[in-house]
Each structure stands twice: as structure tokens, then as C-alpha cells.
Amino acid sequence: MIYSLIFFFTYSLNLFAEDRCSTFDDPAWKLSWHDEFNSTKLDLSKWEITRALTNFNSELQVYSGRYKNIFIEDGVLHLKAHKERNYFGREYSSGRIETYPKQAFLYGRFEFCAKLPKGRGYWPAAWMMPETSEYGHWPMSGEIDIVENIGHVSESNWGTIHYGLPWPHNQMTGATYTLSGSDFSEDFHSFALEWEPEVMRWYVDGNLYSVKTPADLGGHRWVFDKPFYIILNLAVGGLWPGYPDEETAFPQSFQVDYVRVYSRQ
């Protein structure tokens, strides 16, 4: 019994000793799923690697499973974008991973400790999509954005939900958190979403900056009552962030120290 306690205490210290963000500590929430990225390889029991030539939002990258695009170093996951002509004819490569089909979540506190790239054309994100499209195709079954930044506005993060009718009648609502005197490329910051029945709360570094309930959807269905899975990716280019210019430095990474999911006690 004493040995078990010593092992647990030592494991707990090792788990959180190298946190690059302030450790969340609230007895109302219990850690239920996490990845600390303390191994030398991505844990494929938790994550699926995306290998795809995507055409969403007029983005420019191809998502690759190569080590240069997805790797772990010093306890930090790197999704790294390179400027390079590749065999798909694209001039940029990058990384994307997701928990689908291995894990989906219905409610909880979702926390990401991350450092973001800087420069026009970068579009890092930690977000969630529905496990099944029970209410219809995007955005009818919803989308949840927790970390979303565009590289030329590197001091701001957007927390958003998407819903409503199919494009071009889709709807979204959210808020922006802006740092004062610094930006998200300079250091690691904590980004969190608390998702409970009929309410969502967004935080940066423990600061609450947005709350959404069914009343904010203008009469549209509240579709955030089904399991969603987690996506981490670094896109390059697109209609919203714009496209890299001569001042955009490559390569750069979307760096994630940990992903933690808590459930209500």
C-alpha cells in the first residue's frame, strides 16, 4: 500500500512537473482523459493522423504524416508547417491529428496548453466536431472552436460555435480574447472550454471571456448535446487568415504541451 502511494505521488509529480501553463485545480472537476506528450512518439491509441489534400476554406497545405510535420520534442507536440513543393503540387505541408474514431466526448472541461505560430497565413486550431451528423451535415450538427488564431492577429484568440442551416445560411456566434502587450507566439497559454448541458464557457489563462447558451442561437436548434471529438491542426492560408507573404517565416509550429479533459465530479 505504501509503495502504491509512493508510485502514485511520483507519477503525479512527473505528470504535471513540466507544465508550461498554470495547472488547473478545481475539486469540482476530475481529470478523465489526457495526453501530456511526454513520450517520444505520438500515442496512436488516442490520436489518428490526418493524411489528406484538403480543399476546405481555400487552404494551401497538404496534411502529412511525416515526422517533419508531426513530432514530439521535450514534452511538446509540434504540428509544423513547411514551405515546400510536394508531390501533391502544393507549396506547403503541415500536420493534423484528431481523436476520431478512437474517442469522443459529451460535456466536460477541455484544456489546451499551447504556443502559436506568428505570421500572415498561419491558422492554428484546437476544435471539436460531432462524432455523428445526427442533425445533418455541417454546420447543422455543430462545430466548437476553442483555440483559433490567425497569424497576423497573433494577440487574439477566437472561441466560436457554428450551427444553423447549410451554407450559405450557416450561423456562428463567439467572442475574442486579446492579450495586452504580448501575443500568443511568445509563450504558452491555457485555452479552455467548459461544456455542460445548455451552456458553454470559454477561458484563456483562467479568464472567462465568453458564455453561450441556447438563448444566443436566435431560435436555432441547440445541437451541442451529442458527442464531439477533438482536432488539432495547423492550416496554411485560407479565406479568413489570408495567404503567406514575403514576411511570413517558415517553418513554424503549433506547439501543444498537453490536452486535458475533465468531467464533473
Structure described in brief:
This protein is mainly beta and 265 residues long. Helix content is 6%, strand content 43%. The longest helix has 15 residues, at 2-16.
Could you characterize what this model shows?
This protein is mainly beta and 265 residues long. The chain has one helix spanning 2-16, and strands at residues 29-35, 48-49, 61-63, 70-73, 76-83, 92-94, 96-98, 108-115, 122-130, 143-148, 156-164, 170-178, 189-196, 199-204, 207-212, 228-236, 252-264. Mean pLDDT is 93; it is low at 1-16. It is built from one helix and 17 strands. The chain has a single domain, classed as Jelly Rolls (Sandwich), CATH 2.60.120.200. Strands 1, 3, 4, 5, 6, 8, 13, 14, 15 and 17 form a ten-stranded mixed sheet that branches. A seven-stranded antiparallel sheet has the order 2-7-16-9-10-11-12, with no helix packed on it.
Shape: globular
Helix/strand/pairing class, anyone?
A: mainly beta
- By DSSP, the count of extended strands is 17
N/C terminus separation? 25 Å
Largest sheet: 10 strands, mixed
Stretches where pLDDT falls below 50 for ≥5 residues?
A: 1-16
Give helix and strand order, one letter per element, not per position.
Answer: HEEEEEEEEEEEEEEEEE
Proportion in helices: under 10%
Strand portion: 35-45%
CA-based gyration radius: 18 Å
CATH arch. level architecture: Sandwich
Oligomer: single chain
Tally of domains: 1
- Determine the CATH topology: Jelly Rolls
- Average the pLDDT over all residues and give the rounded result: 93
Can you identify the CATH class?
Mainly Beta
* Discrete helix count: 1
